[in-house]
Design goal:
97 residues, 4 helices, 88% helix
Length: 97
């Protein structure tokens, strides 16, 4: 599992490295400010997720976080939204294949 995660991160980081020069050429140097902003937001989101997972015993999945925050309805909403995201990825793969 660790190797699979490492390979996924490697692919995503590689794509970002290869696309950065074209992005700077198209959007200008101001795009680096936007990129830095999104990097900070992603880092902060990771810190918040770590805090959520460690705040209560038994919280191991995103639906568990939804339940801890909003009760049973939160768990249901997070589970349904995760299902929609998965379905959208499958549909987009079929459409743009």
């Amino acid at each position: 599992m660790f190797c699979l995660s490492l390979a996924g991160v490697n692919v995503l980081a590689g794509i970002g490295i290869f696309s950065a020069p074209n992005t700077i050429r198209e959007a200008g140097w101001a795009s680096l400010v936007v990129l830095a902003f999104f990097a900070v937001v992603c880092c902060y989101t990771g810190v918040l997720l770590k805090y959520c997972f460690e705040s209560k015993d038994g919280v191991k999945t995103f639906p568990d976080i939804g339940e801890a925050a909003f009760g049973r309805i939160g768990r249901l909403l997070i589970s349904v939204s995760a299902g929609f995201v998965s379905t959208n990825f499958i549909l987009l793969h079929k459409i743009y294949k």
